[in-house]
Amino acid sequence: MKFRAHTLRIILALVAVYVIWGSTYLAIRFAIDSLPPFTMAGLRFVAAGLFMFTVGKLSSAPMPTRSEWQGAALIGVLMLVCGNGAVCWAEKTVPSGLASLMVATVPLWAVVLSTLLPGGTRPAPRAIVGILCGLVGVFVLVQPQKSGSIDPAGAAALLLASVSWAAGSVFSKRVKLPSSPVLSTAMQMLCGGSLLLLLGSLRGEWSQIDPQAVTLKSILSVGYLMLFGSVIGFTAFVWLLRNTTAIVATSYAYVNPLVAVLLGWAYNGETPSSRTFVAGLMVIFAVALITTAGPPKAKTA
Does 147 have pLDDT greater than 70? Predict the structure, then answer.
């Protein structure tokens, strides 16, 4: 009976990560319909960070040290400012489903960075095949086509977002962070969100906000991103990391794009082209190869 309850919790957590994180791309698209991208993202993360920091402190977690704040700031810049912030900006011109396919290359870049950094690891042969397949898929995605091409600036921003999120994932294992995952993530959100708000201010985004023009759909989307994307989705992911294998937990990387493409098609009129479909399958297949590859080996001189 206990085993069944544990299995049920795993299934529910996986469904939450698959569906919620897959739906955030469309939620971002709706949110930036009437709100500027960096300010919207900053408000989302600061609000979610304050909530999670309060939860972390109520659980008697020790007060973070200066070095832990520095580590959280670095990861917040890489993952939230350069990562999520770039996605929000890119979705002004790139369909949400296509954005999710580009961001699905995060595991690919994580393997590449882990290989290049000092003390890194050498990827397994299956992972190398996955890297090559993923690079080809990305190349196909960003190529111009007769029916219209991807905005070059948007495509570049999505590539930056993928590499930055991967770098944040890799460096999170190398910097000092609080032992409490809730407190650690709250600090990253507070640092990243604050910098996003600053970036939005420097770009003059506050003057672009017309309270009368802000739609209810945008407001509800921001609330959804705060509560479901940042708080519930992350909590489910952290629980999976502690109760299943990393392969199972990170399987969201090649399920989220399917959810995002379907939601974009159903609710935002984003009909993927045949080439986008083929390239997307290549990216998803590449991520599947990388995440199911054998353990990496230490590099030898």
Answer: no
